[in-house]
Amino acid sequence: MAFLKLSSPHAHGPMSTPRVMRLVLLATLPGIVSLTWFFGFGTLVNILWASLFALAFEALALKLRRRPLAFYLSDCSALVTAFLLAIALPPAAPVWLIAVGIGFAILICKHMYGGMGYNPFNPAMAAYVLLLISFPVDMTNWLAPRGAISVAELPGPIDALLRSLGAASTQFDAVTMATPLDLLKQNDALLLDDLWAQSPQFGQFAGLGWEWANVGFLLGGLYLLYRRVFTWHAPVSMLASLTVIAALFYDGGSSASGGSPLFHLLSGATMFGAFFIVTDPVTSAVSNRGRVFYGAVIGILVYTIRSWGNYPDAVAFAVLLMNFAAPFIDHYTQPRTYGHKPRQNREKS
């Protein structure tokens, strides 16, 4: 058995793993409500399918590894992976797409490395990247938000379920649109003000619907901070570095502009990534100083890939790249052992 090499003092509290997972699930609700209001019931259908597949694949992996099912299934870690991937997918995604993603996340990214606590990469983001590279058409098939189309055209629960099963895909293909990040990336002729005026996908500061979804995940993240599920270092440093680099390269709104800092903060998966992905305790840096560096580089990578890379939203790619670097960061940001002086002070004395 491998033990974590942690220096004293060791604090023990009532925050067990199942309790942490349940708090994370609860914190996703404001963002889920926003996505459901603006894009219909497709996100809820994604969560339904993803949860069923996650529990099934988790039970299969535990059975093959001869682990007790009730004990490990009750920790809710599989459900957290299901929720995170389901939220990241386009609403009412094909059921086979969800099955492939969840199977890869649970069986390959989690249990192949030894289960929860041993996976080097965030399972939900690794599965998202696999699906995006393998099935780009299905992964970019986002419905137009409420306000850009009539309310009657948004899928209800039955319509969303049928669409996920492939029975109503044609009906909703007519109301799919490029996301605001897609539009900004493809724009090379219009000033941002003109692009905003001509495209119904844009709201006041960022994408219509995406603004409120990001606010919802921000509220959920602040709740987790209040409950001390994680520290502020990684999410705040990610958002701060993204703001700074977006401000440095913002030229006021020309056709070559990458967008304002507020646009990047309220677009795509920014807040979702900052508070629900970057804060993963298993795949991120361990020390507070390391988390600051870890989050800051992720923010820079998000803007870099969004502006000059091949993909409009880059949270998943940025997180996976820094998952690679997390052990390196830990090596150079180890906190001093409790009761000992820093190395340079010991050498002077």
Task: Report on the architecture of this protein.
The chain has 349 residues and is an all-alpha fold. The chain folds into 2 domains: 16-176, no CATH class; 185-205 and 214-332, no CATH class. The chain contains 19 helices and no strands. Helix 6 (95-110) packs across helix 7 (123-134) and helix 17 packs antiparallel against helix 18 (315-332). It starts with 16 loop residues before the first helix and ends with a helix.
Content of β-strand: under 5%
Number of domains: 2
Number of beta strands: 0
Contiguous uncertain segments of 5+ residues: 6-11
Which geometry do the CA atoms define?
globular
Q: How would you characterize the largest beta sheet?
A: none
Indicate the mean pLDDT.
Answer: 87
EC number: 7.-.-.-
Function: Part of a membrane-bound complex that couples electron transfer with translocation of ions across the membrane.
Enzyme class: translocase
Subcellular location: Cell inner membrane
Brief summary of the model shown:
With 349 residues, the protein is mostly helical. It has helices at residues 17-27, 29-39, 42-64, 69-73, 77-88, 95-110, 123-134, 136-139, 157-164, 169-173, 180-186, 192-198, 210-226, 233-249, 261-265, 270-277, 288-308, 315-332, 343-348.
Provide keyphrases for this structure.
about 350 residues, mainly alpha, 2 domains, globular, RnfD_bac, translocase, flavoprotein, EC 7.-.-.-, electron transport
How do the strands and helices of this protein lay out in sequence?
Blueprint (H helix, E strand, L loop, with lengths): L16 H11 L1 H11 L2 H23 L4 H5 L3 H12 L6 H16 L12 H12 L1 H4 L17 H8 L4 H5 L6 H7 L5 H7 L11 H17 L6 H17 L11 H5 L4 H8 L10 H21 L6 H18 L10 H6 L1
Helix pairs in contact: 1-5, 1-13, 2-13, 3-5, 3-6, 3-9, 5-6, 5-7, 6-7, 7-18, 13-16, 14-16, 14-17, 17-18
